[in-house]
Design a protein that fits this description.
seven-stranded antiparallel sheet; binds N-(carboxycarbonyl)-S-(naphthalen-2-ylmethyl)-L-cysteine; binds fe (iii) ion
């Protein structure tokens, strides 16, 4: 068995090679930290359950009147809201009338460690959006441009079933790369990539030992 061992002398096989965290550049300002969140997966999923106990999953309605196939919630000072009035960041969960739940303890250090590793020091996210995909759910090609802070990156953490992520360029018709994001992958989108078009293809059916028939994605943003 080959393994990346941490420590000297001791036979500490913490990771199989497939599970060992490693960094892959993806494009201008975009970096994938493969398996970067793998060591915290169970704690992250417990924390997601705590958030959704206070701010349950919901299917937002786009300004065009379509129900999103992805279920969402948020935590932290700001959450993302969509309705027929448009998209915005809001400190109040419209479903409860209360502030969004706080970010669970390990969220901030993980997001900051990822950002720092990709060259974005001092990342102070004020919103964490949580997306839930079941088989067939998808996110059509879009740009994230509701955040007022254009200098901060977006950090995303994938948990559960794998997804095929589409990543284009500054215009809608730019050529697109497809990359598969698996359980534990962390991606930092900064610099020019911050405003590139992107989307998620319909989730394929499957079962993940920790999440069942779902994919959970966390995105950390500085919205204002
Ligand atoms: C590239 N979420 O919530 S995460 C979103 O997997 C969103 O749930 C996807 O796109 C998901 O807005 C993708 C990766 C991601 C997030 C934000 C980006 C990629 C990005 C912003 C700019 C460029
Ligand atoms: Fe997005």
């Amino acid at each position: 068995m080959s393994a990346s061992a941490v420590g000297t002398g001791a036979n500490l096989a913490l990771f199989d090679d497939d599970d060992a965290p490693r960094i892959e550049p993806l494009g201008p300002g975009a970096v994938v930290w493969r398996a970067g969140a793998r060591a915290f997966d169970t704690a992250l999923l417990v924390a997601v359950d705590q958030v959704t106990a206070q701010a349950p999953w919901r299917h937002l309605i786009t300004p065009g009147g379509f129900r999103m196939s992805v279920a969402m919630t948020s935590c932290g000072p700001l959450g993302w809201v969509s309705d027929r009035r448009g998209y915005r960041y809001d400190p109040i969960d419209p479903d409860s009338g209360r502030p969004w739940p706080p970010m669970p303890d390990m969220f901030m250090p993980l997001a900051q460690a990822a950002a720092t590793q990709a060259g974005f020091d001092g990342f102070e996210p004020d919103a964490c959006l949580i997306n839930r995909y079941v088989p067939g759910a998808r996110l059509t090609l879009h740009q994230d441009r509701d955040e007022r802070d254009a200098h901060s990156p977006i950090v995303s953490v994938s948990l559960g079933l794998p997804a095929v992520f589409q990543f284009g360029g500054p215009t809608r018709r730019d050529p697109k790369q497809r990359i598969t994001l698996v359980h534990g992958d962390v991606v930092v989108w900064g610099g020019p990539a911050r405003f590139f078009h992107h989307g998620v293809l319909p989730l394929k059916a499957g079962r993940h030992p920790l999440t069942g028939e779902q994919r959970i994605n966390l995105t950390f943003r500085r919205a204002r």
